[in-house]
Write a structure and sequence with these properties.
Elements: E1 2-5, E2 12-15, E3 21-23, H1 28-33, E4 37-40, E5 45-48, E6 51-54, E7 64-69, E8 75-80, H2 82-88, E9 93-96, E10 109-111, E11 131-132
Parallel strand pairs: 3-10
Antiparallel strand pairs: 1-2, 2-5, 4-9, 6-7, 7-8, 8-9, 10-11
Length: about 140
Amino acid sequence: MLKLSCLCGRVRIEVAKKPDFINECNCALCGKSGARWSYFHPADIGVTGKTRGYRREDKDDPAAEIHFCERCGTTTHFTLTESAIARFGNVQMGVNMRLADEGDLAGIELRFPDGRNWSGGTDFGYVRKAHIIGR
């Protein structure tokens, strides 16, 4: 189990297992939020503490709502929006793995998707080669 928290400690996240990989995307949302995302089924994540949500205003129908701590502003996780759940089911949440102790992430692949140039209709391209954390 991974235990993560925001900077002030008011928002805590528990994840039932380590992620298979972590994405450090270069799109505006990921870059400006400072997130490194891993993806899990919502049943595998527990979040405690009060967060605020933000949905991109530059997208007609954003698929994700980013959550952050109301007190310290740390980006903590994302949930799917109602329209995304209607299309795909409630099958995914993202957790900002920058909240984890890096030692807990040793051996996990860190990927660098090119979200800035992603059209949304295909698989991601990558801006550089992945590497294993802690090596």
